[in-house]
Amino acid sequence: MSTAQKIINTLRTEFIQEATSAPKLFKDLAKVEHYIAESYKTRSFIELIQNADDAQSTVFGVHGFNGGLIVANNGRPFTFDDVEALCRSGSSNKSRGNNTIGYRGIGFKSVVNLASRIYVFSGDFAFYFEKAATKALLPEVEDVPLIRIPHQCGTETNERFLNIIDELKGRYRYSTLFIFLDINKRIAEEELSEFDRSSLLFLNNIREAHFDRENIKRTISIEKGPLDKQSYVRIKEADSIDEWDILRSPKDPRDVVALKRSGDSIIPALPEESVIHSFTPTVEFAGAYIKVNGDYSTDPSRKNIDMDEFSRRSFDNTVSLITDTIIDILDGRSAKKGFFSPFIKVINKEGNKFKALLFKTIAARLNETVLRNLNGKTVGLSSIRLRPEWLNYEDYERLCNSDLTYLSKELVLSYPELPVFLEQLGIKKLYLDEIIGKINSADLSIAGAGQIVTKIINQYRYDMTQERVSQLKHLNIFPIGNELVCSVSVKSTESLNKGFLNYILQNVNQGDVRYFFLKLGITADSEALISEKERENGVAKETITPKVQSSKVHEEKTLFKATPNIQKWRSAEKNAEEYFKSLEGVLNVSDVSTANMGYDLDVLMANGKRLYVEVKSVTSFSEPIKLTNNEYASAHSYGASYCLAIVINEEPFQIRIVPDPINVLSFQKQIERWSWFCDSYMEGMKDVEELLPILGGRK
Questions:
Q1: What are phi and psi of 555, to 5 degrees?
Q2: DSSP label at 535?
Q3: Pick from 295, 298, 270, 263: which is nearest to 283 by CA?
Q4: Over 50: is that where the pLDDT of 540 sits?
Q5: Residues 372, 331: contact at Cβ < 8 Å?
Q6: Could you give the C-alpha distances from 419 to 110, 423, 594, in angstroms and in order?
Q7: How many CB atoms lie within 10 A of CB 372?
Q8: Residues spanned by the domain of 167
Q9: Is 588 within the bounds of a domain?
Q10: What whole-number distance in Å separates Cα of residue 278 and Cα of residue 294?
Q11: For the domain that residue 183 is a member of, what is the CATH number?
């Protein structure tokens, strides 16, 4: 008799004696086993992968064969302690803080749902678990557990499985194999087909997983390593490749934040991927569309987090990783394109305890932090003011420049989600009272003055007290020629800049405008208070350059430096971005649609000019379009540099450009939280190849 057989016999005798002396306890063990199996339902293979990883396996596999299922790995073969831990619940020699993942020693009991007979072949060990065989030994015990008493495999058993074991060992170098008979096909197929490959992200050793059963054939490979001094994990399956940036805590290497990447940008992970891992995934949403790993305590099912001292320590390390990265980005020490996108998409996801806890803790940490180099200043986060959407960027920066901190346009172009993220943390927008206090010390543009006066009239039209009027009279916000003066220097609205007046009249009720000027002692000239659009009676201006037909074929070939990567499943904004990127003479295109800039794309041309492009998706070029008040204000501010990209986002993809839409098209104001409606823009549209020479993109 071999040493392995002697060990199995010794354990078998020991367990039989325990059952005989305490039959009720043995019955209770059967109930506990059933409870564990129910708690771990849908997680059997995850638990088996975890056990394989703890055994230093690099390859894990699930293989079907006629009559059963084989789960195997190439890890360290079983020792006596391993066999005993497999038989007993909670007797594992794994412990918190070691390099092993599990520490309770009960994960293997999850397979009770999968099969009624389980064979184990590892090293010299060959034994099996079966309720019927155990019951035959203990007829007086009312109920027995499946996984408790190991039974020796006879020669006929070894011969029965010899061929398939040898084949798998030869192909995959497996050293430990579990053979499941009388399996529950439904549970096995559901778990294998729905298995999330990102579950493997934080394992220490596994690099390959093979699922090969009837209609389920999946091969997953994991690659880990440094990339540009950053850690990454790349998970491949068929034609799919998921890449993750890894941020690892210097305090505890087990505490990790994983950020999903596409190309050169971080992107939000899928909702089903965005969970907290205790090395293997729980069902707890991570609070943002990221993955988080750590030494988290869980309930017995390993599905839910218990925030004890271990979990709290890992959570604190996670928050430190996130906040340190944010500070490095704001101070200019780090560049992580797309970093804030996994956080802003989660703003409206309610009812999750970790979302609230994550954002609250991030805000608290950042508020304690001093930024060393934000626009060249040393400031606290509380001094930052976000740009109100109704104010153009240049004047926002000028107004903040003295004692407040602004987010530079360059920073927001690099991280368009940043303002939304900071607003979620409680950072305030620059508000009107602050603006009023800084107007006379800021070198405002006429466009900015128009936007501020529009806001003042709309906000204070029912609050024009004597004190308010006195305050407003001293503001240099009224343009005469190219100079901004206070109301005392203005006798009549007739002397004011016509563009300034026209902007106000397009955005404010005419009666409110008249009342405002009268309160400030400015004569409200009736003719001057008629907007251009009203004067034109809704008739659009003629376009400066007549629309031309598409270029000839030989000219079309020179339009693109590369074929546009248009995908029908992408949004109109993303397809428009890809289109502009492919054009000759375009250096860079930034998607700023999430930054509330009043346009979707920032396009940098070869000659240094910028285009500010708002994308409008239509089903045909005769369909009306609308501008929000923010978009309308931006179109006024940027003038000829502002364009509408009218897109039919279907096959074939079609795009036309309307440059300087405020001066080219006719818009009518509609009361839908202020939107601007245009039902005819055909005469304003141009082919892209016609515009490029004008814009300096092509010679």
A1: -75, -35
A2: H
A3: 298
A4: no
A5: yes
A6: 46, 6, 9
A7: 13
A8: 3-213
A9: yes
A10: 6
A11: 3.30.565
Assess whether 580 and 626 both reside in one domain: yes
**Residue at which a domain ends, from 367, 392, 407:** 367
**Contacts (Cβ under 8 Å, ≥6 apart) of 503:** 447, 450, 451, 454, 636
Antiparallel, parallel or unpaired: β 275-278 and 256-262:
unpaired
* Shared-domain flag, residues 328 and 194: no
pLDDT of residue 40: 65
Nearest to 134 by CA among 120, 150, 158, 110: 150
pTM reported for the whole predicted model: 0.76
| Alpha-carbon distances of 247 from 233, 300, 323, 397, rounded to whole Å | 11, 28, 12, 33
Q: Are residues 76 and 158 in the same domain?
A: yes
Tracing tokens 């394109």 back to the chain, one arrives at 337
Q: Among candidates 345, 669, 674, which has minimal Cα distance to 538?
A: 669
Inter-CA distances, 290 with 339, 413, 552, 580, Å: 10, 23, 48, 30
Residues 74 and 206 in one domain: yes
- Residue 232 located in a structural domain: no
- Asked whether residue 616 is domain-assigned, the answer is yes
616-632 pLDDT tens trace: 999 888 888 888 878 88
Q: Is residue 223 part of a domain?
A: no
Q: Which pLDDT score, from 0 to 100, does residue 310 have?
A: 94
Range in 8-17, 107-116, 442-451, 551-560 the model is least confident about: 551-560
Q: Same domain, yes or no, for 468 and 499?
A: yes
pLDDT band at 24 (very low <50, low <70, confident <90, very high): confident
- Counting Cβ atoms within 10 Å, is residue 67 exposed (0-12), middle (13-18) or buried (19+)? exposed
Contact between 582 and 573 (Cβ < 8 Å): no
First-residue to last-residue Cα distance in the chain: 89
Whether the Cβ atoms of residue 32 and residue 104 lie closer than 8 Å to each other? no
CB atoms within 10 A of CB 507: 24
CA-nearest of 336, 342, 293 to 314 is: 293
Same-domain status, 358 and 254: yes
Q: Judging by DSSP bridges, how do beta strands 265-266 and 216-227 pair with one another?
A: unpaired
Of 258, 232, 269, 366, residue with least CA distance to 318: 258
Amino acid at the residue 642: Y
What is the rounded CA–CA span in Å between residue 294 and residue 254? Answer: 5
Token digits of residue 142: 């009312």
**Residue 648: CATH number of its domain:** 3.40.1350.10
d(CA 261, CA 264): 7
pLDDT over 90 at 140, yes or no: no
pLDDT single digits (tens) 167-224: 999 999 999 999 999 888 888 888 888 899 999 999 999 999 999 988 899 999 999 9
Task: Decide which of 500, 535, 570 is a domain's last residue.
Answer: 535
The structural domain count of the chain equals: 4
Question: Mean pLDDT of all residues in the chain?
Answer: 85
| Residues 466 and 505 both lie in one domain | yes
What is the C-alpha to C-alpha distance for residues 276 and 285, in angstroms, rounded to an integer?
Answer: 6
Q: What are the CA-CA distances from residue 124 to residues 49, 163, 279 (Å)? A: 22, 17, 30
Give 371-427 pLDDT, tens digit per residue: 888 888 888 888 999 999 999 999 999 999 878 999 998 999 899 999 999 998 999
- Helical (H) or strand (E) element with 483: strand 483-485
DSSP string, 370-383: EEEEETTEEEEGGG
Same-domain check for residues 483 and 596 = no
Record the tokens describing residue 63, joined without a space: 């293989």
Q: Which range is most confident: 87-101, 145-159, 262-276, 370-384? A: 262-276
Neighbours of 182 (CB within 10 A): 12
